[in-house]
Write a structure and sequence with these properties.
The structure holds 2 protein chains of 2 kinds.
Chain A: E1 3-4, H1 15-44, E2 46-50, E3 53-56, H2 59-66, H3 68-102, H4 105-116, H5 123-134, H6 139-146, H7 160-184, H8 188-196, H9 201-229, H10 233-239, H11 246-256, H12 260-285, H13 289-295
Antiparallel strand pairs in A: 2-3
Helix pairs in contact in A: 1-12, 2-3, 2-12, 3-7, 3-9, 5-10, 7-9, 7-10, 8-9, 9-12, 11-12
Chain B: H1 9-35, H2 54-57, H3 69-102, E1 104-105, H4 108-116, H5 123-145, H6 156-180, H7 185-192, H8 197-226, H9 229-234, H10 241-251, H11 255-276
Helix pairs in contact in B: 1-11, 3-6, 3-8, 3-10, 5-6, 6-8, 7-8
The chains are: A mainly alpha, B mainly alpha.
Chain lengths: 296, 284
Amino acid sequence: MTATASADLAAPRTRLALFLLFAPALIWLLGLIVLPHVDLAALSLRARVAPRTYEFSFANYRTFIDEPLYWHTFVRTAAMSIIATACTLLIAFPTAWYIVKIARGQAKSMLLVLCLIPFWVSETVRTLGWMILLRESGVVPHFLVALGITAQPVELLYHDATILVGLVYTSLLFMIVPLANALESLDDALIEAAYDLGGNAWSILRQIVIPHAAPGIAAGSIVVFMLTLGNYLTPTLLGGKNSLWFTEQIYAQFITRFNWEQGAAFGFLLLMLSTAIVWLGLAVSGQRFGDVMRRA
Amino acid sequence: MIHSLPRSLLTRAASGAYVASFFAFLFLPLIVVAVFAFNDANYPAPPWRGFTADWFIGGVGRVGLFADRPLLASLGTSAIVAAWVTVLSVAVGAANAFLLERVRFRGKSLLALAMLAPLVIPGVILGISILAFASRLAQFADDFIGVELEFLRPGLPLVVIGQFSYIVSIATLMIAARLKRFDTTLEEAALNLGASRAGVLRTITLPYLQPALVGAGAIAFLMSFENFNTTLMLVGSDPPLTVMMYGRMREGASPVLNAVSLFLMIASALLALALLQRPDARQD
């Protein structure tokens, strides 16, 4: 990259200053992002044929296809992430609407801050809360018995629905903020005009609100999907042994079995899925990556 | 419907109830964690057996938070890691911001996009790629130079590097957003009046950037403290708090975890308050 200092005084001029500005960015991006991922790709494309001897091979990817457990887990993780993203959107949208369009003055800013507070606390703590609430000896089963709804305490952990609740919960903020930003820029007069012209709630939502909020919906959904797909803590703790989340497979190969080649292949598959969905989301909604990330 | 249009009593009630239950959902886990830090039972579960501070200060047969050495050590580890990540992220983030806002060069928009890329790479994958690459470098150094580079093996230096690799993206965004709004005529005026470039940077540009630097630092500290995915892949023998808590939660919880969680909640609430007190420090 050849740099030219711009003519105005504000630009750094000396070669040293330019070098000092470029160096950290290049060390970071090349040394911590690009090269490690190239290395990961290389790792995933080799197989051990003898101790300390490796050769180029697609064996690790073939294992993924041949072993139903692996690709089932992969598909399941993707499907659950899509469901979780959709649920998050459905739950967050009315709240974002209420905060932006119905609440006024003090209440409005207070509600927005209230949304932020739980996310200042670690995901570990929030998951601990869900475990105390939902496990067999926990708060919710206790109240279900006390209210006479169930005779015995029921185990509410370790179900798919539990994982979904946990995932939706952790994702809400990342949906609310972009939605609220998008709705904030929607002029109330448009809605009033539509209402005066005889529009009902449904037609206004469909023809005015959703088209206007589309960038926010896209930004929120992309971020939530990506975070959900890559989540490890919530599925393993709330789903237990039944969670079958793909990040667990990566962890198991890398850390437990020390089969880095296989783990690298799994990691690459997850990265490709994540990138594909982000790209698809951008393409479908006609958004640009940079804008979406700044919005989120 | 919006506030300026007529809404029936039923709609009002329904939307109010929805928002109320939404916030109940949001706060329920936190409230439960806080409440059971004070329950006089060996397991954080109902029924309520009376108030106790045992889980903080200890009691008969009970180790409280303040005597739980491994837990306190992990809290300290998290703080050290977070401090390093904060300093590195703010410094590199500021340099990146100047690069993006002040220097013209070919391929800038590409570089700006590349700087956002770490935010869309799942944390687990950032972790394993850095783990594998560092291990390859260590192997290389060992084979060819005969030096054992300890910091490239799983451990705290790698945790710092792994967390830094994506947190710096956020710091860059925050600092660049503020630098973009800076009126460069202020710098020109100072230069015209005879100030040196370093003097201008110190007395004009950096003070202007300070709210963004502080804000980015706070966010970086918090994100590092809370990070789990990347950390789990890179951690060595001394686990930070999130990894430590995760391990204990799998074994079965003790209310000491509630106690340390309550401590975290109070600490992050104070940090949030401190940041919200300075309205100009808030970034979009």
